[in-house]
Write a structure and sequence with these properties.
By secondary structure, the chain is mainly alpha-helical. Helix content is 74%, strand content 0%. Helix 10 crosses helix 11. It is globular, with a radius of gyration of 25 Å.
């Protein structure tokens, strides 16, 4: 007589909670691109609800547009020339072959990306440098990083100088903070270039990303400081022309300090091309010098002029590089 096998009761299994699926790369890439545009649209909508846009546009006469166009075109070519010399000098010091003309076309090609997002523009520039100068991506990124640090230092120096001689301390600019940031940049270069061992910091200092700031000759660093300072002065000059075109008087030191603040805000990757943030900060900085509607018109002309001329500069003089930069930025976003 055979026994029927008995099975021990199995414990009840609870339904396992499956983690929520991560967003797809394409969706994440779309959000990264759409968010700055949405921020700009929201800020502009808020601004237009406070200031009559039609009243602001009344200040944009043909005479104003015509007088601003010439200096704007000169500004674009001068700044591209400065950018090309910076890239050429740094690449040469790093042992890479990059002529000034190619450097100018590479930079012009990345203007469209930089207008949409400063960080994306830096990625596109690094990729084009890697391909055209035969560098590793880390070395190319280190060159772009070094130039960007000198941009920040130049902006801070101009802000400190303007705040020193300006009666108005707009937006609560603190001299102590500015000087501390400048000191941090100088200290960073000292740490990277020091010949003594710094223990655990040595592994960070030896990263390829920091090769350029670590090994560039002192003469090249001084050239960069001069050229990036000249670059900021070009922005101040263009802004001075803008106030002259609209016949609005502004002090030189207040203008310099406020331009430095505008450059810093425009570089923040929270709005497309600094649209929205630039207009709000512009009106706040120069409040009292002219009616808000006129200040809005000045800001719109400046932003629209820079966006259009720089986009055209890239598309006309470096179309193939622009396509390559856009593709490279798209590949980096998907990675």
């Amino acid at each position: 007589m055979s026994e029927t096998p008995t099975t021990s009761p199995q414990p009840a299994t609870l339904p396992s909670s499956t983690p929520a699926p991560a967003p797809s790369p394409s969706k994440a890439s779309f959000l990264r691109r759409a968010l700055p545009i949405a921020v700009s649209a929201g800020l502009l909508a808020y601004l237009f609800s406070k200031i009559d846009l039609r009243e602001a546009l009344d200040y944009l006469s043909f005479d104003v547009l015509f007088r601003f166009l010439g200096p704007l075109i000169v500004f674009n070519f001068v700044t591209v020339f400065i950018e090309s010399i910076c890239l050429h000098r740094v690449a040469k010091a790093c042992g890479a072959a990059l002529d000034a003309l190619t450097a100018a076309r590479i930079k012009a090609a990345c203007y469209l990306l930089s207008l949409l997002n400063y960080a994306v523009g830096a990625v596109g520039l690094s990729v084009l440098l890697r391909r055209r100068a035969g560098l590793s991506l880390a070395d190319a990124g280190g060159m772009v990083f070094t130039i960007s640090v000198f941009d920040i230092g130049s902006v801070l120096a101009v802000a400190a100088l303007g705040a020193t001689f300006s009666v108005s301390n707009t937006l609560g600019l603190r001299m102590g903070l500015v000087i501390a940031l400048l000191g941090a940049i100088v200290a960073g270069f000292i740490v990277l270039r020091a010949k003594v061992s710094m223990g655990p910091l040595d592994r960070i200092r030896e990263l390829d990303l920091f090769r350029a700031p670590r090994t560039l000759p002192l003469q090249t660093l001084l050239e960069l400081f001069f050229l990036r300072g000249l670059f900021v002065l070009c922005y101040i000059a263009l802004m001075g022309v803008l106030f002259w075109v609209f016949e609005v008087e502004v002090g030189v030191f207040r203008l310099a300090m406020n331009v430095a603040i505008l450059l810093a805000v425009s570089a923040l990757p929270i709005a497309a091309g600094g649209l929205g943030t630039g207009q709000i900060v512009f009106i706040e900085l120069f409040s009292g010098l002219a009616p808000d509607a006129e200040l809005l018109a000045m800001s719109i002309l400046l932003s629209a002029g820079l966006v259009c001329t720089r986009a055209l500069l890239g598309l006309i003089f470096a179309a193939e590089f622009t396509r390559e930069a856009l593709l490279a930025a798209r590949e980096e976003s998907a990675a």
